[in-house]
Predict the 3D structure of the following.
Amino acid sequence: MTTSRRTLMTAAAAAGLAATAVATGTGTAYAKDAKGGGRAVKEHFGTLADGTRVDRWTIRNGRTRLSVLSYGGIVQSLEIPDRHGRLANVSLGFADLDSYVAGSPYFGALIGRYGNRIANGRFTLDGHTYQLPVNDGPNSLHGGDKGFDKRVWSVEPFERAGNVGLTLRRVSPDGEMGYPGKLTVRVDYTLTPTGDFRIDYEATTDKATVVNLTNHTYYNLGGEGTGSVYDHRLEIAASRYTPVNKTLIPTGELTKVAGTPFDFRRPKAIGRDIREAHQQVLYGQGFDHNFVLDKGITSRPEHIVTVGEPESGRVMRIATTEPGVQFYSGNFLVGTLAGTSGKVYRQGDGFCLETQHFPDSPNQPSFPSTVLRPGQTYRSTTVHSFSTR
């Protein structure tokens, strides 16, 4: 999902890393374990208008390489091999910080406090009504106009049990973007020895609040900048979805996907039904909907999605603990943004699969709760596994 789609580390060596930081003339620092196995690379990526430094961290494990910005926790690049072993970046993004600041549609961003939309930017909790910034028509989207995607995070590399990763931390003060409670957040981005990209979210609060964290990476398994994703074959283990009104707020219904363009229970091309004259497709100008996962909420990640690209042979499988996934087919990429490769992004040049609790849950009593209270710990995990066929 995007900012009004219609209009548009610091680092210390982690425990377990017998690390050294070697500064180079280009401002790059390298952290390497004592055995010479894994490595995290920190580079100066740019400077914000207030003088805050933004770094890019790059980690690798096997043939998978991930680059993450301290600004917004943004996945700037994710490189994986195709069936012939050729690497390509499969995530959409920008080559420079200014482009992210000027108007990114949440490319690769860490989303919070609340992923997706809240109707009229308002919810009531324990008898108190909270007003959030309205930044998507009449609604609040992705935590407001300065959500977690526009904040600078502390970043620390780690390596343990063969995994290589980055820990991102941030404290969101009470009242930030209208949300109650001081929220202390930790997010781990991990590359496993088998090439999985795992995201673990954790948060605590000192006051009752609502939380729904996710990641907003746009994927194109053919490679960033290679054109449409409509030929990707997608399968989602969801028998129902949450239909929306014209401002993309759920109606509260859980509607069966059978007989609709939203039926991805068996693999089909993303573009096969995207131009059907179905009211929900018209509202989203394509797919921009929450799918109700058959598995529900689980304590461990369970498989929910498989998507494959025929030419490269790349396959991505997603497992999550979450009860929903927002499938967005890149409907509002309108040819105004040039990506990391220098190619212009047009409609359908990337897709998002945002694992989540449902949109507008604070105003929908029948939806799974997103309330977090003092003494509780919010935890969520999503794993992206890559292979070829």
